[in-house]
């Protein structure tokens, strides 16, 4: 799946568009909607019209990686018609963006027309962070107090999308934020979708190590651009807090979109509830 | 070690039943000593490798070249094997073909019997591990002694290698000291590493002189010249291939390359990826037995070419990529799963990511169907693979082969061995739900509005995490409200 060569530019980027499609992902839609809302707000604040196709469900990745390509194909086929206009498709997750960019064309079967459609969609699919950095040129003034955060980059963002340095660069543009690097930063957090259910022992060992490494930085919070990793890491940390009888979270985390919005004068959707 | 594969002499280690795998993985992650030593060793190897590739552009072009050589070789495999056989034969090397481990062992036992051999001294060979060579020889009354230091330690301990390059990486110097004191007559306990190496060296030196046959593996078999290349660091490989009167090399059929000029890039990327060495201490090129006026060398040289499931992988365009492997072990060094469970937990000769994709061909999916699921698909293996094997993609393919309903003409032995009607039904329902946007909307509306009904126990997830709970309102609701 390492479709990208480290050290080279991930791809060529288009000029800033008038509008984008926002493909939220099933996890964001149902479990972390505020991250999706904040991403939409960030884009709209830059004067970009955001189209939210109402028929979006899921990129098909859970079935695809579990070894059920036929089920993945059915879901992918249902999503191919969602993006009729020639606008970029922005996805607030490295792994879902990677699924669309590299695997839709493969799972779709042999119908040339469908394959061509999947390929065309793949070519204009971007992970949110790379879109903000390379297409939008995100450069808002940091209005927050001085703070230190730590960053987790998903394996898909790192190895499939080649956007492992993008999160760092976005955070570097925030004047009052310093980034604390953690031990074994490039190592997986242990989520892996159904892996965390099928092999809880090893998955737990991986996420516990990740939580320990992130906490050891002394950072005030975790920032990540992938909700799968975020839920895995923060729910593990919450469980450790619970077991230790701590009432305040020892490792709070939020999506990069939420963090960027809060720091640059916006009001995150989660704060308003 | 609590996690070692059961290994009673003479009894083949065959063994990856789903339950046994889960139990071994469980034991391994809870073994603090094992976790610490593998983490330390893998960190060391990753740093050594990284230091060998300071220039990403150079690494990338060398990987591209190495991948191309391996793919080119595999594309002509049947022809190259014929060419190899012809040229080896011309050089005086006797070529044998074995489809199964039993056939390979029978061929080598036949050679041993013909020479009335009592002792075979071995250089490091993972293929010999794959066929349980030592057990087969011992069962027939022929001694087989490992001369690679790591393999020697593992043999004394009655274990299998836990890493394909560093077989005894799981053993501490104290454990090795104890093994030596227990098994080698006249040796007192010492955990001084230099002293231990000298002890091993002294024992093995004697054996090279009295051994009737030397056995070795092969890293590259060059078809155009009929040359067997052997990469090693200890010099024991050279001893095994030159001192005894008979040398038997054994390798998998995929190791053939066409031209001598293909050796250099593969050799370079192999040692740099494996141990972070610019070059290994020894590089042997074996082109035949001792000739008329030669002063040393074996009188007979044999090559055993083993299939053992490789032709099954070869027959499928995607699975064929498995055979590009040059056995450097970088995938295991960089694997977060291997780092946490070590090599023995896998229960296969080849552990780690490469083991997960190659073992199903050797052992069938009946025994191995759970292996491909034991990965988070993080992609670290594929990223460092010197010949660019798309390991995550192959793991996904194998998951599919294992879990699909058994059908006629499968690509693999044991296809469908992991089929579970209930799980398949769940995925069918999932597809129905997510491929029908209206149904999906109704489902997610209910799941968010009835979030208080979300179960608190969520299978493996809540083993170590607080439960997941849908948000009160979906993103699509928030988007609508705002407009």
Describe the structure.
The complex is a heterodimer of chains A (273) and B (483). Chain A has 273 residues and is an alpha/beta fold. Chain A is built from 13 helices and 8 strands. In chain A, the strands form 2 sheets. Chain A has a 4-stranded parallel beta sheet, with helices on both faces. A 4-stranded parallel beta sheet of chain A has the order 6-5-7-8, sandwiched between helices. In chain A, strand 7, helix 12 and strand 8 form a beta-alpha-beta unit. Chain A is globular and about 55 Å long. The N terminus of chain B is likely disordered. In chain B, the strands form 2 sheets. In chain B, strands 1-10-7-4-2-3 form a 6-stranded parallel beta sheet, sandwiched between helices. The interface between A and B is large, with 76 and 72 residues.
Quick recap:
Chain A has 273 residues and is of the alpha/beta class.
